[in-house]
Amino acid sequence: MWSPIWTFDDATFGRTAGSFDNEDFVDVVIHSYRHRTGNVAGDPRYATVEARLAMQPDIDVPAINLHGAADGVAPVRASEGHGKHFTAAYQRRVLENVGHNVPQEAPQAVADAILQLCKDASA
């Protein structure tokens, strides 16, 4: 579901697999999803930040939203309305043949987006 068409080699898998070798991995991941869906409270240290973000304030910095068209977890339509929160320059790019893990699946597109933001900022 995450990245169904991403092909990766054994070396890439080997570098990633180490992150699963953590006794807290499953608990952290499950808590993250439960928190995202509103089924558990977040860390109280971030309650003030969470409250501010819940108000969905405008974001006054240039941004480029990269979304993988093959993302089976967060479908492309899920990010369609995000631009309304940005008051500075905003672009939404849907990347074909890319899933949920955009930085690993399309590193050049990520680098290009960062360079574009830097170029726009210096213009």
Describe the global form: globular
Distance between the termini: 40 Å
Q: What is the tally of helical segments?
A: 5
CATH superfamily: Alpha/Beta hydrolase fold, catalytic domain
Strand proportion: 5-15%
| Count of β-strands | 2
User: Which oligomerization state do the chains in this entry correspond to?
Assistant: single chain
Query: Which class do the helix and strand fractions yield?
Result: alpha+beta
CATH class, anyone?
Answer: Alpha Beta
Please estimate the helix content: 25-40%
> Architecture in CATH?
3-Layer(aba) Sandwich
Radius of gyration: 17 Å
Order of helices and strands: HHHEEHH
Average pLDDT, all residues: 90
Largest sheet: 2 strands, parallel
* Residue runs with pLDDT of under 50 for 5 or more positions: none
As laid out across the biggest beta sheet, the strand order is 1-2
| Number of structural domains | 1
CATH topology: Rossmann fold
Secondary structure elements and their pairing?
Blueprint: H1 10-17, H2 25-36, H3 47-54, E1 63-68, E2 90-95, H4 102-105, H5 107-122
Parallel strand pairs: 1-2
